[in-house]
């Protein structure tokens, strides 16, 4: 689950950097305390981004930050549908409906994975 841990650490770093004010405790829960479903989702999305970068022969790095963030958000949404029969609307919101801090955090996650791979 190292991949999931990298994802989670990138999420926490992004929330800490971009969230306006004090983030909800669940947003910055350490990996060790993160629920199992969320660990699995984090690892899956990390793998999807990693594979996307690889199958593009590294050229996915040329995407805009928005495109990178949208990719992470879409992958995460798919995981929410996998893990929850009726996920909260905020868990599956379209990119345009996500708050700016979350869009920036998702782009940061993609870029962290780029640097890791």
Number of strands: 0
Shape: globular
Whole-angstrom Rg: 13 Å
> How would you sum up the major sheet?
none
Structural class: mainly alpha
Overall mean pLDDT: 96
Unreliable stretches: none
Q: Beta fraction of the residues?
A: under 5%
What is the count of DSSP helices, taking H or I runs of 4+ residues?
A: 4
Percent helix, as a range, is 55-70%
State the distance separating the first and last CA atoms: 15 Å
The ordered H/E elements are: HHHH
Topology overview:
Layout (H helix, E strand, L loop, with lengths): L1 H17 L17 H20 L9 H19 L16 H17 L1
Helix pairs in contact: 1-2, 1-4, 2-3, 3-4
Question: Could you characterize what this model shows?
Answer:
The chain has 117 residues and is mainly α. 62% of the residues lie in helices and 0% in strands. It has four helices and no strands. The protein is globular, with a radius of gyration of 13 Å. The mean pLDDT is 96.
Quick rundown:
With 117 residues, this protein is an all-alpha fold. It contains four helices and no strands.
